[in-house]
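Deliverable D2.4 — example input (structure tokens):
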């Protein structure tokens, strides 16, 4: 995670992936309980396609849980955009890259009052001043597809 120059609250996120054919686990809670897997390439394509099932026009909220191996996990609520797979310039393999833009305090406060997927995560939200390399030793990202920029609609 590195701050995006000239922006307020945006970070460039890069995560090594073993292969573009690796699976991403997905699940839904409502209205239908379902689960499955999709290839990493299909996951990233959700940000490039137009239509109802696309994150291109309305980037999803994400709960970014991070922390050092020894520390207490921290939660940051953000939107995830510009998601793609790129070659790793520091070695072999590939990276999942995205821009994470931290929600404002007002947006997070609205999320905490909902019954949406991110409400419990929003209650633990901390807006970081700086995210260190040690902080990203352990990372989990929960992508919410239902209410991107409309937290009141969750």
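Example output (designed residues):
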């Amino acid at each position: 995670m590195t701050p995006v120059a000239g922006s307020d609250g945006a970070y460039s996120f890069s995560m090594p992936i073993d292969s573009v054919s690796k699976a991403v686990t997905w699940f839904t809670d409502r209205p239908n309980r379902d689960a499955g897997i999709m290839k990493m390439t299909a996951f990233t394509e959700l940000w490039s396609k137009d239509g109802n099932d696309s994150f291109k026009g309305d980037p999803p909220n994400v709960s970014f849980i991070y922390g050092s191996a020894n520390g207490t996990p921290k939660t940051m609520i953000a939107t995830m955009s510009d998601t793609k797979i790129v070659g790793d310039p520091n070695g072999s393999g590939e990276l999942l890259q995205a821009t994470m833009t931290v929600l404002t305090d007002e947006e997070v406060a609205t999320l905490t009052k909902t019954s949406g997927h991110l409400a419990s995560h929003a209650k633990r939200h901390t807006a970081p001043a700086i995210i260190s390399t040690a902080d990203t030793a352990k990372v989990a990202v929960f992508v919410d597809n239902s209410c991107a920029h409309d937290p009141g609609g969750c």
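The mean pLDDT is 79.
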